[in-house]
Amino acid sequence: MASSAARLPLPALFALLGALLPEAQVHLVLEDHRLETTVEYNKDSLLATAYIKANTEEEGTQQLTCTVTLGNQSQWTLENVTIYSFPAPILTLSPPNVSEGTVVSVECKACAGAVVTLQGAPAGPPGPSAQFLLNATSNDDGRIFLCSAALEVAGTVLRKNTTQELRVLYGPRLEESDCPRNWTWQEGSQETLKCEARGNPPPKVVCRRKGGNGSSLPIRKQILVKRQISGTYMCQAMGFQGEVTREVVVNVTYNSNQVVTIILVAAAVTLISVCTAAYLYNRQRKIREYKLQKAREANAMKLNTPP
Q1: Cβ neighbours, 10 Å, residue 30
Q2: Which residues form a coiled coil (predicted)?
């Protein structure tokens, strides 16, 4: 679809006949084809507009003639009209969804006469197409490929772009940067275990205590740290290519004042127990010695008493 309009200042003769302006006849002709024209009148000028539907066979430069007739006077002007077709380039990823390690063909094509630039393609002679092969890795998941086409029309460079996204299926992966192996928390603090697995589609991660009852430790959820959670956990990620595990150790530190208090209390209890035991032992010993002394005295009296 193309449009053309011509705004012509009327000559002095037409200005003097302004009252007759609505009587002016305006014709737009493209080459030898007369166009259906709409005219808008102003005080001392007019605007003629016509819409045309161009075909591919009509591409190129054609001459537009605008003629204004008032009475027996005519004025005309010529303009060049360029008819062109410039669709957006076609960018193809074959295939667009792949497993890691698959070779992907990236190709971009534009209309004749255009020059394409394909992001990631090796340098080559300018032309309407470009392509290259890509060995897909996890780093290419979500990668946006851009193809830009440029076409020169009547001295002006026009540009159009097309993008495509590549999806790579991979994983799961548990790495130190996403799931640290060692955690140290203070008892009574609020902490969050962060253990993320990489992969497409996103893997599911669960951390369970190693051995014992296999109780789980929440991930990405703030918890109150207690001594009971201290221990070793096995974090398991399940995804597209199966599952992987990673050992995670959680250490819980205690308040030093509480430790000293516990030690002092334990020492006091031990001391009291020792003292009590010593007191009871000495008391029993004295009782036995007293009874033994009384028995000796009784025997001595019997021996000294005459028959």
Answers
A1: 19
A2: none
Q: How many helices (H) and strands (E) does the chain have?
A: 2, 21
Determine how β-strand 156-173 pairs with β-strand 129-135: unpaired
Query: What is the pTM for the complete model shown?
Result: 0.62
- Strands (DSSP E) along 8-72, which ranges? 25-30, 33-34, 37-41, 46-52, 60-70
Q: Name 144's bridge partners.
A: 165
108, burial (CB in 10 Å: exposed 0-12, middle 13-18, buried 19+): buried
Domains of the chain (ranges; CATH) run 2-83 (2.60.40.10), 90-170 (2.60.40.10), 174-253 (2.60.40.10)
Please list the residues that pair with 186 across neighbouring strands: 253
Six-digit token pair at 81? 């009209």
Helix or strand or coil: residue 281? helix
Strand 97-99, strand 156-173: pairing = parallel
AA letter at 98:
V
Per-residue pLDDT tens over the stretch 19-77:
455 677 888 898 888 888 888 877 777 788 888 887 777 788 889 898 888 778 888 88
How many angstroms separate the CA atoms of 153 and 41, rounded? Answer: 32
Q: What angle do CA 139, 140, 142 make, to 5 degrees?
A: 110
